[in-house]
Specification:
about 575 residues, alpha+beta, globular
């Protein structure tokens, strides 16, 4: 079975294959940007039998697709905007992901919607959530339990940390959650398993043109500095908040879409700081706030403010952190403090621009355009509907191809690790005993790798020391750190600690204690010298210190200036090599 492993050697092979293309022998589709939409487009095109390339300037999912609320949901607030079609579409995708496409990565999670007013609010909110469940059923996407009305006593049993005076009851409903970075990375690997050539750390610097037609791209391998030309019959621009920047590479061409970046920050606190068996959703003055169970932590977010500073490394300010703490503390009996925050992360939503005073009012719908021959642009949308966006982009791309191309089949294509997952979960205790792992460790592995867990177990069998918990981050095994490089395309320490794992936000020291051990584990597979490994650790420490410092500052501008002082980690490491 081809599991699409992305080793350092596989990356080099993919770049060589893509750059060997010519006018007579070119890719059918080249996708630029490997967030969830770009990765989904590569998979969609590859499963239609097309030759496909996928380029990413940084790491897979290093932008918005690793910094979301980690929810797969229809979006209750879009019902109030009467956007029923978007909600129905998203709920259908939620059902597909839970039941077929990624059951190892996407799982139901209950939420409480606390009620503060008698009679009318229970009727109004209850009717909305009932419609939410009904839309899921009509779209064939029902994969979670239906909602239930709770009394005040029942609500407080489910979430003891709520202040009793803040509610008269609640409604419990279900959505789903996902580790967004892992899901996106497995989309990339699944595309590779179906024949796509994929390469991260490869920046597009321009477009190849024949007259007005785009016939490929110029790119630079950031790891080596090599300049490349990659030819393709159609290029799909799936660069999210960078859509405007990438369109600007088409000299003299006006961008078809304007994308506004909306900043959303989240804080991560230990599970013991809040007593609750469900998530909660709270209304704020401008939007909604989620408190989401996340293994041994809670994720609390988000904000929704315009951002026009550094898109590569958006910064959370002290005002952002204080805002989230203030909002969640309105509902908690024991308030959270800054000392309770283990992690902070910031993402940018790519919103299609409109005349609106607030980014909360801009569209989460997506659009696909063909600004010049040979170039497709896909913009907007939300994480949950990535597959539909990818399908629409590839549908537009194949109109440029002379040959007849099959329709999209990705709703029938499980991601790697999904096939056989239910059986593997049922056998987890026996497999754990056989491999000397605890039941908790086995469940952790299955929920991150699904049936690909056998590849992790093979690493441990070959080197039993890799079966030990990682120093500084004992929720993870040492084997997972090695696997991130040998199978998952990680090139740098930050890739491993921030995206292949979540050590950077799940440990109180932001992963600093684990950094040196992790660097030692991945130095061999990546061919680092001791000096290069030490440089990666120093860069990670500097980045972490800058982010913590930014989170003490009062506004976006000062926070951004502090974070900007740290150069792009991958490029510094590459230039030092």
């Amino acid at each position: 079975m081809n599991t699409g492993a992305i080793s350092p050697q596989a990356r080099a092979t993919a770049l060589a294959a893509m750059s060997a293309t010519s006018a007579d022998d070119q890719l059918d589709v080249l996708v630029v940007g490997s967030g969830v939409v770009g990765a989904g487009a590569a998979l969609d095109a590859a499963t239609r039998g097309l030759s496909v390339g996928l380029l990413e300037a940084r790491d897979f999912a290093s932008g918005t697709s690793s910094r979301s609320s980690k929810l797969i949901h229809g979006g209750l607030r879009y019902l109030e905007m009467l956007d029923f079609s978007l909600v129905r579409e998203a709920l259908r995708e939620r059902g597909l992901l839970i039941k077929r496409l990624a059951p190892h990565l996407v799982r139901p999670v209950p939420f409480l919607y606390p009620l503060q007013h008698r009679a009318w609010e229970r009727f109004y909110i209850g009717a909305g959530i009932a419609l939410y469940d009904t839309l899921a059923l009509t779209g064939g996407g029902a994969a979670v339990p239906r909602h239930r009305h709770l009394t005040r006593v029942e609500a407080l049993k489910a979430f003891p940390s709520l202040r009793p005076e803040t509610l008269i009851g609640a409604i419990r409903y279900y959505d789903a959650q996902v580790d967004d970075a892992r899901h996106t990375m497995l989309l990339v690997r699944t595309a590779a398993a179906y024949g796509a050539h994929v390469a991260a750390r490869t920046e597009v610097t321009g477009f190849l043109r024949e007259g007005r037609k785009v016939v490929g791209v110029r790119a630079r391998d950031i790891e080596t500095g090599a300049e490349l030309e990659i030819r393709a019959r159609t290029v799909i621009n799936a660069t999210g908040v960078w859509t405007g920047d990438s369109q600007a590479l088409l000299t003299g061409e006006r961008g078809e879409f304007q994308v506004t970046a909306s900043k959303g920050i989240h804080i991560v606190v230990p599970r013991e700081k809040i007593a609750g068996r469900t998530g909660i959703i709270l209304r704020t003055a401008t939007s909604v706030l989620f408190v989401i169970p996340w293994d041994r932590h809670w994720i609390i977010g988000t904000t929704d403010t315009k951002w026009d500073l550094d898109k590569a490394n958006p910064s959370a300010s002290g005002a952002d952190v204080d805002y989230l703490l203030a909002e969640v503390n309105k509902a908690l009996a024991v308030p959270l403090t800054r000392d309770d925050v283990h992690g902070v992360y910031t993402g940018l939503r790519p919103l299609l621009s409109a005349t609106a005073s607030s980014t909360a009012k801009l569209s989460r719908e997506h659009a696909v355009g063909n600004p010049v021959p040979g170039l497709i642009v896909v913009a907007g949308g939300k994480y949950t509907t990535y597959r539909v966006m990818a399908k629409d982009a590839v549908d537009a791309a194949v109109r440029n191809l002379a040959a007849r191309v099959p329709a999209s089949c990705t709703e029938q294509v499980p991601l790697l690790g999904a096939d056989g997952y239910r059986a593997a979960w049922n056998r987890r205790a026996a497999v754990a005993r056989k491999n000397g792992l605890t039941g908790t460790q086995m469940e952790h592995l299955l929920q991150r790798y699904g049936t690909l867990v056998d590849e992790i177990l093979d690493l441990i069998a070959a080197n039993p020391a890799l079966g030990r918990p990682l120093d500084g981050a004992p929720d993870y095994l040492a084997a997972e750190i090695v696997y991130a490089v040998t199978h998952e395309g990680a090139r740098h320490l930050d890739d491993v600690l921030s995206r292949r794992t979540r050590i950077s936000i799940e440990t109180a020291d932001r992963g600093l204690a684990a950094a040196r051990t992790a660097a030692g584990l991945i130095a061999g597979p990546l061919g680092w010298t001791e000096a290069e490994a030490a440089g990666e650790v120093a860069l990670y420490e500097a980045r972490t210190a800058a982010e913590i410092a930014a989170q003490q500052l009062p506004d976006d501008e000062s926070a951004d200036a502090t974070r900007r002082d740290i150069p792009e980690i991958a490029r510094v490491a590459a230039s030092a090599a």
